[in-house]
Amino acid sequence: MAWPIPTVLGVIGGILLSLGVWWGGVALLGGALLALSDVRPLLAVLALAGGAAGFGSARLVSARPDVLRPWLGAQVTLEGEWDGQFLTLREPRARVVLAPKPAVRPGHLRVSGRLVAPDSRRTPGGFDQAAWLRAQGGVFLPTPTAVLVAARVRSSAREGGLRGWFRQGLTAGLPPRQAALMQAIELGDRNDIGREDFEEGYAVRDAFARSGLAHLMALSGQNVALITGVLVWLIGRVGWPPGVRYGVPAFLLIFYLLLVGLSPSITRAVIMGFVVLVALAIGRGKVDPYGLTALAALVCLLLFPLWLLDIGFQLSFLAVLGLTLAGRAADRLPAALPYWLRTAVAATVLAELATLPVIAGTFGQLPLVGLPANLLAAPVMAVLVPTGFLAGLLGPLAAPLNLLNRVLADALLGIAWAAGQFPVLPWGTVSPAGVIAYAVCAGAGVLWLRGRVRAPAVLGTVLACALLTALPGRLHPPRDLVFLDVGQGDSTLLRVPGLTMLVDAGGSVNSDYDVGGRTVVPALRALGVRKLDVVVATHADTDHIEGLTSVLRSLPVGELWIGHRKAGDPVLDAVLATAQARRVPVRQVTRGDRISAAGLSVTVLWPPGNVWSTADNDNSVAVKVESGAWSTALLGDLADPAESMIGVGNLDVLKAAHHGSRFSTGAALLAQATPQHAVISVGRNTYGHPNADVLGRLQAAGTKVWRTDEVGTITWPVP
To answer: 20 to 30 A from 589, CA-CA: which of 2, 82, 335, 654?
Structure first.
């Protein structure tokens, strides 16, 4: 057994124990027992030493003082080097996230805004910014600890040096979309490609994700293998000895890493490529793939211990472990197929299977056309990566070469566009039981590839695990109200057997941030929502219905409820146009309309339908939800006195109207409803929401207040 294998298990255990995760002790003990099973006591000592090193490294990174804490909440002007992801300051030595990301090229930047602490995950399937930032720090690299919101660029200068020269070569003579793709493929910079759309509502990055090609825009072993492969071939053609043929590319990999920057996948690939090339240069022959993978993980985790929690790190190493079995899997495929095709198919399938639980649980969907899309993209990438790298080296002189790169980039974009049109398999959050079931199935598959068990046993294992993990959801389907945290906006999900209803989907006023696509849809997927029976657009306010456009595009919807069909409103028109394009029936509801399922009823209390106000808020669709003796009301932005005139009756939970505005949740409504609890959907705002008088009235009524800006998404059980 290669010594890095039990050692890295010890390091993983030590890191987890430093984070308070008790089963880190299992990993540490497993490393020691694995060494003892190989009858090597000294190796067991090394595993324990790895545990101590991992524990110490993680503590060193986690306990580092936050030098920006004294300025949290303050308006500041910062100056530093912008790499497209972080602004690095010289004094104090720190890294900062900018929100929104400035649409300027990396380089020297002077920017102003307000420093705030990063957000934790506030919605199911949402992005845990705080956890992600903690994982970006290393022993010699400061951890980003703050976000500069409302960031405004005061001055900027493009980056110079080799990276600036390289970027000029990648983009010379190319249109914006192709230039953005080249920067993503060669530098891992996805900022520009993230702003590119094939058409309205169909982003380039979404197409790559839906087609299973997203990994092509993340620097990885594919880049290292293609670039070093070309270099080795060229040097070999010259006839130089193996020491030069493999040694030169090995040391050039170090400069390549400095050029593109540190990230889990490319760092792993460079370490593994460097070791393989050095072994070939000195004549040591073939390297043990598992020992090499463990060595790369060991180096990464000792320098960046919290990369262990990073999705990129997990995907990279899981994919590599899957690829180690590609040869065995290729041998199982029909011999009539060419070996290169069998290998390509086996490698693609194994990489997808190895990363299955992470991709499904993190992104809420699984591509169904990943295999053919990757097979089509592989030959394009085989040419594009080396020629793109050469274009980068040529700098501004690369325009003639980029005539070829444009054709290749167009081909890759075309594959992503076409494959992204196919449906994806939606997936919810993967529970610990799901991870265990997957591990059992994966173990059975590995034993089959190694000839230890027969295929029927593997199939039976997979079917049994699928049945056992599917049963709980079937036996105990969800029955709840989920008040999604969409910032300064509104979105509520109702789930009972036979009825899944979404009321509003948030929106972002004066911003291009897609709340529906970036927040609501991932939350629905994480919650296991595959279709919506009813979607309600309460009224023509951006912060309520703008996100519905993305929801309608992303999930099957039974029907769309609206109140006032306001003419000429661009946001409502966009929602209705998307509903028409998706063939979703639109129903204009009025007081008395009702829907029932599983002992629960939803009754429309407002609007009356015979008269419309000039104020959008007064036209809000208001509904009452009743289940037995329990009830709640969702009032949109309905204002006082209308809210007290619609007859909500006694309520257990009140969804406070208009984000706690002083114009709503009046004394008359509270006297009528006497709610025990009130939910206020609110985010950072300059409107004074929730109003102090409203909070005072709720307190005086003995109502407990729950706010999404304080506790994030709120899940309320429905009896």
So the answer is: 654
